Amino acid sequence: MHKFAYPASVAALAAERQGKFWEYHDKLFASGPGMSETTIQDIAKELGLDVEKFDKDLNDPAIHMLISRDFNEGVQAEVNGTPALYINGKVVKNRSVEGIEQMIEAEIKKLTMNKDKKKGGKDG
118 and 91: one domain? Predict the structure, then answer.
């Protein structure tokens, strides 16, 4: 997580309250590694947000609680970064093409074996 990840998340949710989440989101990502508190304010002004409301929403505990809840759920789900990838409800740790293929093949094999066991049990 970079230095401005949390303030950027808060700002995007504050912008959402004015119907500008995606516009704000896109401009944040376009700002790249040079993001700062000034960038956060400049984007709000550039998008024509009500800056007074935006600043008030930046301090709204409900936004902070939402981000905290989502962060904690991510930790519980073993999300260590984005994008996070799951196959059949399991975290993909080796995200190389080969690693993903191996995991998919293993899951298909398990499903096939379980299907064969059930089929064998009904017929036998």
Answer: yes
Rounded alpha-carbon distances, angstroms, from residue 105 to 85, 98, 110, 111, 121: 16, 10, 9, 10, 24
Alpha helices, DSSP H only, in the chain? 5-16, 21-31, 37-46, 51-58, 61-76, 97-123
Both tokens of 55, joined, read 């600043």
Nearby residues of 70 by Cβ (< 8 Å), 6 or more positions away = none
Phi, psi angles (nearest 5°) of residue 2: -85, 170
**Domain count for the chain:** 2
- The string of pLDDT tens digits covering residues 41-75 is 999 999 999 999 999 999 999 999 999 999 999 88
Q: Which two tokens stand for residue 94?
A: 């080796």
- pLDDT tens digits for range 3-19: 888 999 999 999 999 99
The answer to the question of residue 81 being in a domain is no
Tell me: do 14 and 64 sit in the same domain.
yes
